[in-house]
Amino acid sequence: MDSSQSDVEDNAEHLRQEIGSLHSSIKDKSTLDKAASNEMVLKSLLIKATRYLAAHPFSKDIYESGLFGSSLLPLPQPASHSLANVLYLQAQLLRHSPEGPVASGCIAKLEEAVNAGVLANPNATTKRKPQLKREKELREMKIAAGIVNVEEEERLEKEAREVKEERSAHHKRRKVRKLESKIISLASLEADVSDLMSTYTTPQLCGSCTTVPSRVDWSVVPNILQPSAEEEGGGGIKDSERAGRKMSQLESLRVVLDSVILGRSLSIVDFGSGSGNSSLALASLFPSCNFTLVDSKPSCVSILKTRIATSGLSNVTPFLGDVMDYKKPFDVGIAIHLCGEATDLAMKSCIANRASFVLVPCCVGKIHKVIQSQIDANVETPDYPRSSWLKSKLSISDYLSLTRVADFSDGRGEGSHSVVAEKSKVLIDVDRARRGEEEGYTMQVGKLEPKTCSVKNDIIVGKAPITLDAVT
Ligand SMILES: C[S@@+](CC[C@H](N)C(=O)[O-])C[C@H]1O[C@@H](n2cnc3c(N)ncnc32)[C@H](O)[C@@H]1O
Questions:
Q1: Backbone angles phi, psi at 446, to 5 degrees
Q2: Ligand 1, pocket residues at CB < 6 Å
Q3: Which superfamily does 193-471 belong to?
Q4: Percent of the chain scored above 70 by pLDDT?
Q5: What are the C-alpha distances in Å from 264 to residues 261, 268, 289?
C-alpha cells in the first residue's frame, strides 16, 4: 500500500468512526428532530456524511444508516441555500449508485429543495439559470434512479399537448365562425371576398417558363450569392429543399422586377434582406441597378458584407437598421417575407418616395400587437385597415380579428375555417392594394409560382404613378 492510499484509508477510517457516532446519535427520532431544527448541526452532520460518501460511494454503512434517504430527516423550512447545496452534492455523488433507498430518499430531499427554490444562489446575479440547471439535473437523477417513468411521462405530456391543441383549435374555429358571418355580411364585399381578386391583374410570373432567358440562368450568378451557397458562414440555406424553394421564388421575383425596372438603371432597396438570399442573386441579375439591403440584425449585415466582398459584387450596399431608419430616396422597394407590420412600413416608405414596390408579405398575425396598441391608445387615425375603402367597412377591432384569422399558416388548405382564413388573407392584401390605388399606384395582386415555392406565396406589386417631373 503506498502512502497516498494509506492516507485515504486512514481518512476513511476516521470518517467511518465519525459516521458511527453520527449513526448512534440519529438512532432515536428525537435527536434527529432536534438536529433538523438546528440547521447548523444538521448541516455539519450532512457534510461529514457527504465526505464519507465521497470516500465510499457504495458504503453499506451509509445505506444502512438511512441518513440521506431518511424521511426522519426533514428539510428545515425554510431551508438555506447552503444546506440545500449540501443535499445537492450528495445527490450528485449518488448518481453513481442511483438505485436503492438512499438515492431515492436523497433525490426526494433535493426535489423538496428545488421546489422550494432554494438551490439558486441568492447572491448570484442570475438566479433562474442555476435553478433551471438544477431542475434539469434533478430530472436526470430521477430517471437514473428509476423514479421517473419516462415513457409514461412522455405519454402524459403528449396527451396534455393534444388537449391544449384541441382547445386552441376550438377557440380559433369559434373566432373564425364569428368572423365568417361578419365578412359575409359586408354588403359591398359580396358573399365571397375572393371575387375581389378578380379586380386585380395578376403579375406575370414565371411558373410555366421553361427556358433561359425566361428562366434565371443560375450559371451567371456567383455561388456565394445563390440561396444554396455552401460556403462556411456564407449565409446560404443549408436545407437543399428550402434552398430550391427560395430559388423558385426568385424565378418569379426576377420576372416581376423586370416588369417594374423596364431596363432602367434604378436604385432598389430590399427591406428586411436577411443575409441576402433573395436580393443578392437579384442584384447580380440586374447589374445596372444599385441595390441597398436593409436589415436590423447585425449578424445578417455582417454575412452580407462577406458575401459581397467574396463575390466582388459592386452594385450592393448593406444598411444596418430598421425599415424606417432608411431615409435616402429610391426608385423601387422590395420586401420578401418581412414579418407583420414591417411589410406595411416598407410599403409606407415606398409611397413616401413615390417608389414602385414588390411585396411578399408574411406573418399577418404579428400585426396584432401594433393594432392592439392603437386600439388601447384610442388613436384618432389608426394605421389599420390600410385603405379608406376598408376603413369605411371594418373597424380597427374587426381588422384585428381579421389578421388573427388570416394567420392560419397551420390550417390553410383544409376544412371550412381554412377557406375563411384564405378569404381573410385576400382581404388584407386587397386592402393593401386599395391603399396603393388610393395613392395613384397601378396595383397587381397574385401568388408566386409554383404555389408550392412557399406557404407565404402572396405577392403584391405596386407600380408608381408617373410624376410630372419624370415626364418633363
Ligand atoms: C424572414 S427574413 C427574410 C429575409 C429575406 N428577405 C429573404 O427573402 O430571404 C426577415 C428579415 O427581416 C428582418 N426584419 C424584420 N423586421 C425588420 C425591420 N423592422 N427592419 C429591418 N429589418 C427587419 C429580420 O431581421 C430578418 O432578417
A1: -170, -155
A2: 272-274, 277-278, 294-297, 300, 322-323, 336-339, 342
A3: Vaccinia Virus protein VP39 (3.40.50.150)
A4: 56
A5: 6, 11, 8
Q: Which residue has the cell 449578424?
A: 299
Ligand 1 atom closest to 272 (CA)? 12
340 CA to middle of ligand 1, Å?
10
pLDDT confidence of residue 416: 47
Residue-wise DSSP of 292-316: EEEES-HHHHHHHHHHHHHHT--SE
Give 425-430's long-range contacts (Cβ < 8 A, gap of 24+): 425/364, 425/458, 426/193, 426/194, 426/196, 426/197, 427/183, 427/189, 427/193, 427/196, 427/390, 427/402, 428/364, 428/402, 428/403, 429/361, 429/458, 429/460, 430/193, 430/196, 430/197, 430/200
At residue 61, does pLDDT exceed 50?
no
Whether 86 has a pLDDT exceeding 60, the answer reads no
**103 vs 283: which has the higher pLDDT:** 283
Q: Is the pTM of this model over 0.85?
A: no
Grid coordinates belonging to 351: 409611397
Amino acid at 52: Y
DSSP state of 318: E
What are 34-43's pLDDT values in tens digits? Answer: 544 555 555 5
How far is residue 92's CA from residue 106's CA, in Å, rounded to a whole number?
Answer: 10
For 131, residues 6+ apart whose C-beta sits below 8 A from its C-beta are: 114, 117, 119, 120
Grid cell of 166 as nine digits: 384541441
Strand order in the sheet with 332-339: 316-320, 290-295, 267-271, 332-339, 356-362, 458-463, 442-447
Q: Is the per-residue pLDDT at 213 higher than 60?
A: no
In the reported structure, the alpha carbon of residue 222 is separated from the centroid of ligand 1 by a whole-number distance in angstroms of 23
Domain ranges of the chain: 3-148, 193-471
Q: Which residue's CA is the nearest one to ligand 1's atom 13?
A: 272
Report how far residue 439's alpha carbon sits from residue 420's, in angstroms, rounded to the nearest whole number.
29
Query: To 5 degrees, how large is the angle CA 354–CA 356–CA 361?
Result: 120
The helix (H) or strand (E) run that includes residue 82 is: helix 81-94
Q: Considering just the CA atoms, what is the radius of gyration of the chain in Å?
A: 33
pLDDT digits (tens, 9 = 90+) for 235-280: 788 888 888 889 989 988 998 999 899 999 999 999 999 999 999 9
